[in-house]
Amino acid sequence: MRTLALIVLIALAACKEDEAAAPPAPVDLTESALSYFCQMNVAEHGGPKGQIHLKGHPAPLFFAQVRDMVAYLKSPEREAEITAVYVSDMGAALSWVEPGPGNWIAADGALFVTGARVAGGMGAPELVPFATPEAAARFIARHGGQALPLNDIPDAAVLGPVDLAQPLATPVL
Q1: Of 97, 135, 147, 167, which one is least surrounded by beta carbons within 10 A?
Q2: What does the DSSP 8-state code read for residue 107?
Q3: Do residues 45 and 33 touch, judged by C-beta distance below 8 A?
Q4: Spatial contact of 43 and 33, defined as CB atoms under 8 Å apart
C-alpha cells in the first residue's frame, strides 16, 4: 500500500511539473492593448503583431510591429524570464490592415520574411511571420525577401537604423 501511495505522489508531482512547464496561451488582441515601446494602441496599426509573456506578469507585452518584438528579444535588458512568444500568422490574416485578433502562432515555429520592402504598423520595414513555408513563399513571390526562422534573423534586421525616406509598401496578402 505504501508503494502505491508513493507512485501516486510521484505521478502527481510529474503532472504538476508538466503544468508548470506549459507556456501560457496567446491572448487575443483587444482594442485596449498598448504597444510596449510606444504605448500606442496596437489595434490601430496594420501589419503583423507580437506578444511576449513574462514570468510573473499577468498580461503579455504587445508589440504593434514584429520588428520591435524581435528587437526586444535580442536585447539583453529584460524585466523577467520569457515564458512564451507569439506572432500573427499573416497567412491566416484577413488583410494587412486587419491581421486578426486571435490568429497567433508560436514565434519559434514561424517563418519570418525578412528583406521585403513592406511597412509594419509603425512605418519601419517589417518582419512578416507565417505558419507555413507555402504562405511565406507566396508572400516572397509578391514582395521579395527571404524566409528565416526566428533564431536566424540577423541583428541588423531589427537593431539597425531605419531609413524612412525609402518608400515602403502596404502589401496585399
Answers
A1: 167
A2: G
A3: no
A4: yes
Compute φ and ψ for 47, nearest 5 degrees. Answer: 85, 175
Phi, psi of 41, deg, nearest 5: -65, 120
Residue 32, classed as helix, strand or coil, is: coil
How far apart, in Å, do the first and last CA atoms of the chain sit? 63
- Tens of pLDDT, residue by residue over 59-71, are 999 999 999 999 9
Q: Which amino acid is at 94?
A: L
Name the H helices within the chain. 2-21, 66-74, 133-143, 156-159
Threshold 0.70, pTM exceeds = yes
Q: Report CA-CA distances (Å) from 29 to 33, 87, 113.
A: 7, 11, 22
The Cα 145–Cα 165 span in angstroms is 19
Whether 56 contacts 80, CB under 8 Å: yes
